[in-house]
């Protein structure tokens, strides 16, 4: 196996000092999940990574990158000593980017970053070697970690770039040195830090600062702040591809939910002005998924890959845990038809993503006549949306007016902020309100039945994963048929 990093190469990249020769085949920041042969990076976060160096080496780490030698190590412990560990990780990231000829795509947006990253992984995997983070590593350490893990022979790299505060995206985009930048959408999220949606748009637009000369900007043309994105791309001299129903280069014509899937018709206009009809299918219902799929295909087309093959490979993508993944829960092992369907979207939430999740719920039909209740129900369990600032209660209450709510039979709410939504709901749709996820999780056996479709959606800090786990424990998880 070719080494990802050698002691000499890593020392040269970081300006550090290796205590002895070593070779690493991967990079890790967590001693608990570290693979043997990895370079352990002793970052300081909630805990100081230096406390876990000994454990990492005991678990088979090839070496550890540290800013000081932890106590209790053997004199010949394999280390890379640097002035600052995070700066050292960024230096590895920069060196990894410099040594590859991969086309690097950066993705940002208020909603859909991770789903679109995974769509691009599926699309590009049939046309080259793709590197992308397995998780949502999109912050000040996640982006450099993803880059530092990139093999030199990658053909494509897909880098997710997020933010919580102003000024975060541009330096990460510059570190990634992008061939293409994609902004999925701009919506109310992290308003506590940004105040107005227009400020969020400017921060998202700063991804263009990382574009290489002649790079491609794939931008949502349907949103009110689209001109902010387009202006930033023009200033950078980027080749612009607008996508959406108003997109002139990538236009969504029809999006139809069909048997739990989405069939989309679109057209793609190339740089030469040639127009290509496009038909693609996704293994989950939802116009937002169709829009993200169109954006991913627009990136692929801009990079010159086979568009027909890309559209076919997109059909292999499906949402995963916490991001809209669908699971069938078998409630009775004797009676195979006694099932309910779970939509696990518990990882994150803001008004736009909750609205999209409700649209998805409304597009799936429950099953009648198999449970205690005579008909299947669409049920939403919605938790607080965090970091929305001074208008957070109004934004929660406004969800009661979302058009898809008319198709939802019962809405249960979790958290102090979601109480505003609960109070705004019509009495016939108002379910239970609970202060926290543990209280709601304890109610699952009484609130759900065979034939139901259950959406669980909230910000990560509300810990609705507890509710998801409680639903799974009602029976046995059966994989979705595709």
UniProtKB/TrEMBL annotation:
Stored InterPro entries: Mur-like_cat_sf, Mur_ligase_C, Mur_ligase_C_dom_sf, Mur_ligase_cen, Mur_ligase_N, MurCDEF_CellWall_CoF430Synth, MurE/MurF_N, UDP-N-AcMur_synth
A GO BP annotation: cell wall organization
Function in brief: Involved in cell wall formation. Catalyzes the final step in the synthesis of UDP-N-acetylmuramoyl-pentapeptide, the precursor of murein.
Pathway(s) the chain acts in: Cell wall biogenesis; peptidoglycan biosynthesis
Pfam families attached to this UniProt entry: Mur_ligase, Mur_ligase_C, Mur_ligase_M
This enzyme's EC code(s): 6.3.2.10
Family: Belongs to the MurCDEF family. MurF subfamily.
Subcellular location: Cytoplasm
Protein name: UDP-N-acetylmuramoyl-tripeptide--D-alanyl-D-alanine ligase
Ligase as UniProt keyword: yes
Domain of life where this protein originates: Bacteria
Chain ranges of the Mur ligase N-terminal catalytic domain: 24-95
Keyword Ligase applies: yes
Gene Ontology molecular function: any one: UDP-N-acetylmuramoyl-tripeptide-D-alanyl-D-alanine ligase activity
Sequence positions that bind ATP: 109-115
Source species of the chain: Tropicimonas isoalkanivorans
Keyword set, alphabetical order: ATP-binding, Cell cycle, Cell division, Cell shape, Cell wall biogenesis/degradation, Cytoplasm, Ligase, Nucleotide-binding, Peptidoglycan synthesis
Domain Mur ligase central residues, every copy: 107-300
Domain spans labelled Mur ligase C-terminal: 339-459
GO CC terms of this entry: cytoplasm
Catalyses which reaction(s): D-alanyl-D-alanine + UDP-N-acetyl-alpha-D-muramoyl-L-alanyl-gamma-D-glutamyl-meso-2,6-diaminopimelate + ATP = UDP-N-acetyl-alpha-D-muramoyl-L-alanyl-gamma-D-glutamyl-meso-2,6-diaminopimeloyl-D-alanyl-D-alanine + ADP + phosphate + H(+)
Major site of localization recorded for this protein: cytoplasm
